[in-house]
Design goal:
Layout lengths: L5 H18 L17 E4 L9 H9 L4 E4 L8 H14 L5 E6 L3 H9 L4 E7 L15 H4 L6 H9 L5 E8 L12 E8 L8 H17 L4
Helix pairs in contact: 3-4, 4-6
Length: 222
Amino acid sequence: MERMGIEDWVKDAGTLVKLQVGSRLKHPKSYIGHEWGLLPVLSVDGLCEPGVMGPLNRLISDWKHDVYALYGSNGNKGIDELAEEIEEVIEKNHLLKAIGLGHSMGTIPLVKAMNDGCPIVQIIGIATPYNGSDIARRVPLKGFQQVTPESTILKEVMERCDKRRIFAISSELDPLVPDGILKGARNAVVRGKGHFTPLVSRETRGIVIREINRVEKARYEK
């Protein structure tokens, strides 16, 4: 089994730091306020990584979609709590339909919210532990324990969902989520190694924008 080298680990960790620092340079409120009537995007960070979706959020906002950024779990919040926060954002902002975009564990609450009837028409998940993550067993916090392979709530969420409404993006080698492929969904593997590397990949950016445009276009074809 292929493993990441030290240089790959350092590069991936550096990507995490750059993403979090960069996210502080533009306030999330600047992602909303467009008046083009395009589908809004609910963006959720993963576990203990607030702000990593910043560059993708800015890109999507530049395409005139409102982006509602949620910082995800600090480790203590579980899937249920985050799904409730997503529902609150939808209700508070009177969103009739939305696209979900998540990184790592942040995708799972979006799936649960969709299962529970929230008007999320499509979800794009990046480096997501749909099948659980072995390394999550090592952290005794609720958020991590709910994405282990044995997690009851994770299994329930994924068994209930309509996988045709999920686009799963993963890297060639992810030590934190080795199995980011979701059977029944559309999947794409982008070049590069690491858990955070896909967030800055040109391939990922292209896939995300194409998928959002596809869903937007489908609104007018029915």
